[in-house]
C-alpha cells in the first residue's frame, strides 16, 4: 500500500454498515474534516428539480464553463448528501472547468432501488431541457460518480440508451459499484481492506436491493448483456478495493462492445483513499478525474 495512505488507516471508521443512521453521521463528520475547497472561481447555487418527488441539487458553475456533468455521490446508496459531497463536487468543477450538478438522490434502505435511479433520471432530463440556462449545450452533458454514485451513473447510461432519453456525452466512473453478485477475485478476497471490504459491500447491496438479487441491469449494471451504444467512459479503480475486478471487467466489456474507454488502475490505493488530500497519489487521482472530464467535454 502507498505509505502516505497507510499512515491514515487507523483514523478511518470501521468498515461496516449495520446501522445506516449512525454511519451517515460518521460520514458527515469525516466530510467536515476535509479541507474546504476553493470556490472563488465559481458560483454555487442550491436548486430543486421538480419531479415525483422533487430532487435537491447543488450547481457549481465555473467561469466560462465547458459542458456539464451530473455528479452522484458515493456512500453505498445509504449515506451521503449535498454537504458531504461538497468538497469533491467543488474540486471536480475546479479541475474540469465543467458545470457540476451534484444530486441529493434518495437513500436506502428507506428508499431502495429504483428510487435513487429515478431521481438521477429526473435530474438528467431537467439538465437536458435547461442546458441553455446552465450555459452549456445539450450534447455536452456527462454523468459520473464515485462508488455507489458511479454505479448509478452507469445504470443511467443504460436506461437512457434503452429509453432513448437525453444524450449522455461521457461517463466518469470512479470505483463504481456495479455487481451485486460479489463473485470476482477482489470481491471474494478483500475481507479486511480499509473503509470498504466484502462485508460492507454486501451490506450496501442488501440495503439497496431490499435483501434480494438485482432485478435488472439498472440496479447492477454488470448484469447487462449488451453494452453497445453507450457513451465513452473513464473508469478508475483502486488496487485494494472489492469493486476493482468488476470495474476492470466492465471497462473491458465496454471496449469489446465498441465503446471508447480510458481505464486507470491506481496501485497502492484503497476504496475512497482519494479523500486523503495530503497524499500525493490522492491529489493525482482527483486531478485525473478533472482532467479526464475536461478532455471529454472538449472533444
From TrEMBL:
Any idea which UniProt keywords this protein has? Hydrolase
List the Pfam families hit by this protein, alphabetically.
Abhydrolase_3
- InterPro entries (alphabetical): AB_hydrolase_3 (IPR013094), AB_hydrolase_fold (IPR029058), GDXG_lipolytic_enzyme (IPR050300)
| SUPFAM superfamilies listed in its UniProt record | alpha/beta-Hydrolases
Q: Which GO terms describe its molecular function?
A: hydrolase activity
The source's domain of life comes to: Bacteria
- Domain (Alpha/beta hydrolase fold-3) spans 69-273
Mind telling me which PANTHER family this protein's record contains? Answer: AB HYDROLASE SUPERFAMILY PROTEIN C4A8.06C (PTHR48081), ALPHA_BETA HYDROLASE FOLD-3 DOMAIN-CONTAINING PROTEIN-RELATED (PTHR48081:SF8)
Q: Could you tell me what this protein is called?
A: Esterase
Amino acid at each position: 500500500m502507498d505509505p502516505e495512505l497507510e499512515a491514515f488507516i487507523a483514523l478511518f471508521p470501521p468498515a461496516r454498515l449495520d446501522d445506516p443512521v449512525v454511519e451517515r453521521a460518521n460520514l458527515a463528520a469525516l466530510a467536515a474534516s476535509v479541507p474546504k475547497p476553493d470556490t472563488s472561481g465559481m458560483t454555487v447555487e442550491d436548486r430543486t428539480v421538480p419531479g415525483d418527488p422533487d430532487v435537491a441539487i447543488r450547481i457549481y458553475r465555473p467561469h466560462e464553463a465547458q459542458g456539464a456533468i451530473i455528479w452522484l455521490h458515493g456512500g453505498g446508496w445509504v449515506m451521503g448528501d449535498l454537504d458531504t459531497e461538497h468538497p469533491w463536487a467543488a474540486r471536480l468543477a475546479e479541475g474540469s472547468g465543467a458545470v457540476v450538478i451534484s444530486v441529493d438522490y434518495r437513500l436506502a434502505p428507506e428508499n431502495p432501488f429504483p428510487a435513487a435511479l429515478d431521481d438521477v433520471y429526473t435530474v438528467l432530463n431537467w439538465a437536458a431541457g435547461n442546458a441553455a440556462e446552465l450555459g452549456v449545450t445539450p450534447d455536452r452533458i456527462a454523468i459520473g460518480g464515485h462508488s455507489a454514485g458511479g454505479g448509478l451513473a452507469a445504470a443511467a447510461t443504460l436506461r437512457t440508451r434503452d429509453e432513448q432519453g437525453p444524450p449522455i456525452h461521457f461517463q466518469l466512473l470512479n470505483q463504481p459499484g456495479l455487481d451485486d453478485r460479489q463473485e470476482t477475485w477482489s470481491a471474494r478476497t478483500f475481507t479486511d481492506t480499509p473503509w470498504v471490504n466484502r462485508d460492507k459491500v454486501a451490506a450496501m447491496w442488501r440495503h439497496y436491493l431490499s435483501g434480494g438479487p438485482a432485478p435488472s441491469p439498472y440496479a447492477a449494471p454488470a448484469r447487462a448483456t449488451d453494452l453497445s451504444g453507450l457513451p465513452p467512459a473513464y473508469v478508475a479503480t483502486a488496487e485494494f478495493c472489492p469493486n476493482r475486478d468488476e470495474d476492470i471487467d466492465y471497462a473491458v466489456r465496454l471496449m469489446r462492445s465498441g465503446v471508447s474507454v480510458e481505464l486507470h488502475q491506481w496501485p497502492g490505493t484503497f476504496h475512497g483513499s482519494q479523500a486523503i488530500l495530503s497524499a500525493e497519489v490522492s491529489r493525482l487521482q482527483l486531478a485525473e478525474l478533472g482532467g479526464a472530464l475536461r478532455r471529454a467535454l472538449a472533444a
